[in-house]
Amino acid sequence: MELWIGAITQGAAYALLALAVFLSFRVLRFPDISVDGTFTSGAAIFGVLLAQNLNLWLALGVAFLVGAVGGAITGLIHTRLHINDLLSGIITMTALYSVNLRVMGRSNLPVSGGELGYAVFGIALLAVAILWWFLRTDYGLALRAVGDNPEMSAAQGINVRNVKTVGLSLSNGFAALGGAVIAQYNGFADITMGIGALVTGMAGVMIGERFLPPKSVLFAVGGALVGSVVFRLLIAGALQAGMNPIDLKLITAGFVLIALALPRMSKGRAR
Amino acid sequence: MILLSKINQRFERPDGGATLALQDVSLEIPRGEFLLLAGTNGSGKSTLLNVLAGMFPPSSGQVQIDGIDVTRHGPERRAVSLARVFQNPYLSTAGTLTVAENMRLAELRGGRRILRLGLNRSAKTRHAEALSACGMGLENFLDRPTNTLSGGQRQALAVVMATIVTPKVLLLDEHTAALDPEAAEKVMQLTARLVSEHAITTVMVTHSLDHLPRFGTRAVLLHLGRVQQEWSGAEKSALTSSELQQRFAGLYGG
Question: How many Å apart are CA B234 and CA B246, to the nearest integer?
């Protein structure tokens, strides 16, 4: 039983990462790999601040902000220096590796002090609620329009470059928050914990789309939460059945590949 | 009023040469005029529309809207006074957003977009009214994503969106060219009605010869980047399709 409760709790924590990926990959249609860096950044800064006896919630807030800065950097590289989307993220992710090591001072940092417990669910639900609201505001509509149709958005007077940068910033804020919460759950932050964050987030988003078809903003956002929880339950089940944890990323990548390829194969050459 | 003075547009080609897409094009479009831009492929009509829309600054020349030099303004800045309907129905609206959400986007064209749930009940009522006035049943699809609509419905929506806040200038980029004849006719009728109701200064690119006598208050024929011919309202209305076909056939030959 404990195993399953643990999986659900982890799912709620990873939902923050899935929401981040939902924002960049689905809403902005920007495969933003900077989350592989900012996920760790969030954990790193959170761990360091807790060690300094900073308030738990304040530390989470700072983690969010640090991630947001990382995302903004990717956004600026892409929109101001005209570097393509994937490469912009790779540059930020690579740079953050050193930054994260500097912050932590070593490659693995124990994270203790404060206890989130079931508050993880509160954080995840709050994040869903905030995004549900945000994406329906006038600014949120502009953000969705930019991802959907940048040319038309510009013709509506939307500053496409700024809106994209804000969206990526927000996305990476959530990713860093996810990293911090996961570090708290695991009891440590590790320099490699962000590897595969984008793909892990995508898995959550895509499973969520199976359960809650994204017909409305609420379903789309809620799907990230549901998908993450289901994904963690699947992993727990697989580990229970004897899967070697070493193979986790291989299986996750394979799963996301299939989920990405299937709709394209069934559509053939249409579009 | 729109003033285009001595617009030149060069495009560098990969082979090192350059194409002159527009050569010394000067046009004065008075307030309330509905101007048709006609021409064959490569005549420069789309390039001219893009220059008007601010997609790229011309190589030389000046664009003025109501006395303000907007030559260097991009589409985002021009949106305050300028609305545009794209040729491709997939491009003219945001497909994953609902009809109501698209209307809300358009209602704020060129304005501030803040963290506010602007698409509330009263906004939806407003949008439903505006859409029902165009008589295409779009008011029944307020909560449907626009990518579930037909091309004709989308272009009709795009025309309503472009005129929901009366723009100083409306640009129509062959916006019925991708539609079947019946839908194209409906969208053209709607366009003509909204343009005249609000007396909007309009520039419409068209390659449909039968639009020339039927729509607009003046027409300009572009050929190889130059203004080849102009027809005032009366001359334009008198044009017959055989005359026009001969005129266009001559251009291909030359």
Answer: 20
Q: Where are the alpha helices (DSSP H) in chain A?
A: 2-21, 35-51, 56-80, 85-104, 119-134, 138-148, 150-155, 160-186, 197-211, 217-240, 248-267
CB contact under 8 A, B119 and A144: no
Whether B115 and chain A come into contact, CB under 8 Å, resolves to: yes
The span from the CA of A31 to the CA of A198, in Å, is: 8
Q: Please tell me whether residue A116 adopts helix, strand or coil conformation.
A: coil
Q: In the structure encoding, which two tokens stand for residue B183, read together?
A: 């839908």
- In this structure, what token pair is assigned to residue A267? 């559509």
Q: Which of A149, A176, A194, A162 is nearest to A78 (CA)?
A: A162
d(CA B23, CA A219) in angstroms, rounded, equals 53
> In this complex, do A138 and B53 lie within 8 Å of one another by their Cβ atoms?
no
B231 in contact with A at a CB cutoff of 8 Å? Answer: no
Closest-CA residue of chain B to A160: B76
Q: Render each residue's pLDDT in chain B as its tens digit; 254 residues.
A: 899 999 999 999 889 889 899 999 999 999 999 999 999 888 999 999 999 999 999 999 999 999 999 999 999 999 999 999 999 999 999 999 999 999 999 999 999 999 999 999 999 999 999 999 888 899 999 999 999 999 999 999 999 999 999 999 999 999 999 999 999 999 999 999 999 999 999 999 998 888 988 999 999 999 999 999 999 888 888 888 788 888 777 776 54
**CB-based contact, B77 to chain A, within 8 Å:** yes
Residue of A nearest to B106 (CA): A156
Q: What is the ipTM of this complex?
A: 0.93
Report residue A40 CA to chain centroid gap: 11
What letters, b where the CB count within 10 A reaches 16 and e where it falls short, cover B105-125? bbbbbbeebeeeebbeeeebe
Give the mutation candidate from B113, B115, B164 for the A interface (greatest A CB count, under 10 A): B113
The kind and range of the H/E element at A226 are helix A217-240
Tell me the C-alpha distance between B98 and B119, whole Å: 11
**pTM as predicted:** 0.94
CA B129 to chain centre: 23
